[in-house]
Design a protein that fits this description.
about 325 residues, transferase (chains A, B), globular, Nucleotidyltransferase, domain 5, homodimer, ATPase_NBD (chains A, B), ROK_glcA (chains A, B), Glucokinase (chains A, B), three-stranded antiparallel β-sheet
């Protein structure tokens, strides 16, 4: 399962990691998100009945959650779901008649998925950077997930990279990389540029308040100057964020995922240029590629966790 | 062995990691440092003869080198020794009649030492930050050294943290953390402040061109305003560097070593304040403590490597 702020994606996998079926249900965030796990469990149990599967036929259930998850599987906080501290693994196992449940951060789950079956296949060390509403990352080094001693491993979306930022990030800080390097950030940067240059012609003006990151990337590829400038700002800060990250863990490859990664080589080439500019220390650098599993990375990673891999344990070299 | 730019420290350890004897010889950097390994080998062989030890009595020799070391033990480059690419392990083993030699980056060796017998004893995850001529770091997560896919793991001294820097760092970049957070950086910051405020009284002026980081730390503790301001700038950027690092690997503890760490709690308290300011994402953070082994951390870590531990393998939990 991959629990997001709007929907819960669920996938049924066999023991080799083949996706047999996937579906999704809406996320009910009302009342502090207290019905989310029950809804997810009910949907899964219905699917099991439909396929004639009993509890003993299921090895386990992995769940990616958008928030801080402690090493024991307790959720510390998941703001977008309305959750405070919650023993999600214990509660879900109870709802599922004893089927073992494994909880992990959603960005980590996606990294596990890409490492197992996606763009990181065959690599020992990688960082998946998910450019969605925010910037999330999953760090796998020497075949092991780094979740951190306080659950903030891979929170590179909150690295301070811009000193003159006046608006606060959701974390309370200022100038966090995700304020620029995300779908939300791209739209905000474009709107700032459009306001700063009211006379400048740009196709972006035609979208009004429905402007999306996709519109900006498409317009940039068509040569729209404001859109190009927006992408240049975003890739500069993303390159800087990758350089900072590389100076700590130096992975083989950075994999860019999330909606913004649809921009493909336009995104990776510019990001690599700035990554290089911000890390002259070595002439050798990690590759920068786009993710392969798209929105399914989370459920692949959750399946890897359920198979007894994730949560800080290795899924590589198996 | 801990090979530095001015001297080579050598220690003789027993199998439990007890230091039996230590000594040092000067580093001969002339002619591209081509005599360094031969000098070190000759000194070690003389000590073995003195103690009646044969080659078969020695498990191995570990060596910390100030430069980029690839996973196979080849030195990629060690600027301060005058070395380019060098098979240091192979050459040393030959000079030592077949005694196995293990080469690692000196900052990583020091981190192994502190993890094994120093301030990191009993911790599974730590980052040793050595504040000397530059800023070096060794990263140990879940009991394993992270050296990186391109030998730049832990090069946090080259994180870009200051945007308005006009002088280049040794790496060719601008605004690297080690340009401020190091013994050299402290002196440079103090000199800048003294020039910027020519009328300001400060005890630091009495030192002239012989001003050291120690003088600055001592004067700051005595309330000298310029010295206090220098320490404030340095700890701000150091705190920022720790915050950036924590957002990737989130260790249990940061251990501050090197000459500057003699400032003790004056240093750690101010650094923690800024580390907190730059990482509002979580209320839980790594501890910040000073190193315990002082200048011996490198030879302890080298001994750990020789025992078959380091070079990316675990020394913790043993």
């Amino acid at each position: 399962m991959d629990i997001g702020g709007t929907e819960i994606k669920i996938g049924l996998f066999d023991g080799e990691g083949n996706l047999l079926e996937k579906w999704s249900i809406p996320t009910d965030r009302t009342d502090g998100g207290c019905r989310i796990l029950a809804d997810a469990a009910a949907s899964l149990l219905a699917k099991m009945r439909e396929r004639g599967l009993g509890s003993s036929d299921v090895i386990g259930v992995g769940v990616g959650v958008p928030g801080v998850v402690l090493p024991d599987g307790t959720v510390e906080r998941a703001v977008n779901l309305g959750w405070g501290r919650l023993d999600a693994a214990g509660e879900l196992t109870e709802l599922l008649d004893g089927i073992p449940a494994f909880i992990g951060n959603d960005a980590n789950a996606a990294a596990l998925g890409e490492a197992w079956k996606g763009a990181g296949k065959g690599r020992r060390s990688l960082v998946l950077v998910t450019l969605g509403t925010g910037l999330g990352a999953g760090v796998i080094i020497d075949g092991k997930m780094i979740t951190g001693a306080h659950g903030v491993g891979g929170e590179i979306g909150h690295m301070r990279v811009r000193d003159d930022e006046k608006e606060p990030c959701t974390c309370g800080g200022y100038g966090c990389s995700q304020q620029i390097c995300s779908a939300t950030g791209l739209v905000r940067e474009a709107e700032r540029l459009l306001s700063a240059e009211p006379e400048a012609e740009s196709v972006l003006r035609t979208f009004g308040s429905s402007l999306t990151a996709r519109d900006i990337a498409d317009a940039a590829k068509e040569g729209d100057r404001i859109a190009e400038k927006t992408m240049d700002i975003m890739t500069r800060y993303l390159g800087r964020t990758l350089a900072l990250t590389a100076m700590v863990v130096d992975p083989e490859v950075f994999i860019l995922g999330g909606g913004v990664s649809a921009a493909g080589s336009y995104l990776t080439e510019r990001t690599e240029k700035y990554y290089k500019e911000y890390s002259p220390i070595s002439e050798y650098r990690a590759d920068v590629v786009t993710a392969r599993l798209g929105n399914d990375a989370g459920i692949y990673g959750a399946a890897a966790m359920a198979g007894g891999f994730g949560n800080g344990r290795t899924i590589l070299g198996k």
